[in-house]
Amino acid sequence: MVQSPISRITVIGGGQMGSGIAQVAATHKHEVTLVDVNQEALDRGKSYMAKSLKRVAKKKFAEDEAAQSRFVDEIMGRVSLSTKPQEAVSRADLVIEAIVENIKVKQDLFAQLSKAAPQEAILASNTSSLPIGKIAELLDEQRKQRFIGLHFFNPVPQMKLVEVVRTKEVEQDVVDSAVAWVKAIGKAPAVCKDTPGFIVNRLLLPYMMESIRLLERDVASAQDIDTAMKLGAGYPMGPFELCDYVGLDTIKFIVDGWHKDGEGLKGNPLFTSSKKLDELVKQGRLGVKSGKGFYDY
Ligand code: CAA
Ligand code: NAD
């Protein structure tokens, strides 16, 4: 197991990604504080974590219910909850933001956090699509040198990869520390430049959008396209199952943002939303999280 001096983590945003990141860090013996806007959101985040840990525990200690509970309780015992971001980062070695995908909200959050986090703390964003350098725009030079992208994948407990995104300003020792920490929590890092979509989403989003356009042209049903990609290309989920899993609002937000002003992607037809996607989002059919998307859940 790779060691890392990072031990106190604060995760801001307790949704599907933030709670997953907190769970994985706590599983690897880190002291974690999970922050969200109110107690209700925190309770939701806590219940995501407990549910996911129970699944892991059931597999690990199949016949032993007491051991399952001990496993879950021990990990949950390392997670504290807070609605006060400044207080929650005051002792952090690493702060990971996983809040709503909105540049202004993220910039304002980091401006607030930079007043309270230790100077040597690493600040990181889990954004799917926004430039890391732009999220750090309001910070001073010293903070920018310790600001990085740490892009996890959904579902966090299961997906091995973390993209480590380097900005123009970030110092090499921060990249090295981030890479070591990713390994220490049992994940595999891939380092890349701060460009739209980094590696995975730059390739995944056109694939998702082209799948939706196949459906719009009535080439095949969603079920048959999913079957084709699972059995013909070996993907664990078909593109429509995956779109529903990620969230159709998230996908629309990403392509709309890049179409409007993504560096090198602006106006590219591959990164244009589609009538079908727009309609589903307008109807509130956002995928698994809303109970309906391309499929009903
Ligand atoms: N938490 C804990 N354990 C979990 C889990 C979770 N959320 N999900 C699965 N598991 C574990 C459990 O032990 C489970 O066993 P039980 O069902 O007995 O509890 C075991 O894994 C197998 O679960 P499934 O049968 O549900 O899993 P599967 O083999 O079908 O795999 C999957 C599920 C990992 C999600 C797989 O379908 C997959 O890899 N799908 C593709 C996901 C993907 O591409 N994600 C990236 C999205 S893009 C992104 O995230 C970036 C972005 O910015 C938008
Ligand atoms: P989500 O909607 O499930 O969770 C977001 C959480 O952030 C909510 O609980 C919300 O209450 C909280 N929040 C919003 N504003 C906040 C603030 N100012 N302070 C504290 N908490 C706040 O979203 P998610 O799917 O977990 O996505 C979070 C981030 O991760 C986004 O940047 C997204 O692009 C990125 N991401 C998403 C996926 C995915 O597949 N969904 C994958 C990788 C990265």
Task: Summarize, please.
The chain is α/β, with parallel strands linked by helices and 297 residues long.
Overview of the molecule:
The chain is α/β, with parallel strands linked by helices and 297 residues long. It is built from 13 helices and 8 strands. Strand 4, helix 5 and strand 5 form a beta-alpha-beta unit. The structure holds acetoacetyl-coenzyme A (CAA) and nicotinamide-adenine-dinucleotide (NAD). Acetoacetyl-coenzyme A binds next to helix 2, helix 9 and helix 11. Keywords: Fatty acid metabolism, Lipid metabolism, Mitochondrion, NAD, Oxidoreductase. Its EC number is 1.1.1.35. GO terms for molecular function: (3S)-3-hydroxyacyl-CoA dehydrogenase (NAD+) activity; NAD+ binding. Residues 9-195 form the 3-hydroxyacyl-CoA dehydrogenase NAD binding domain.
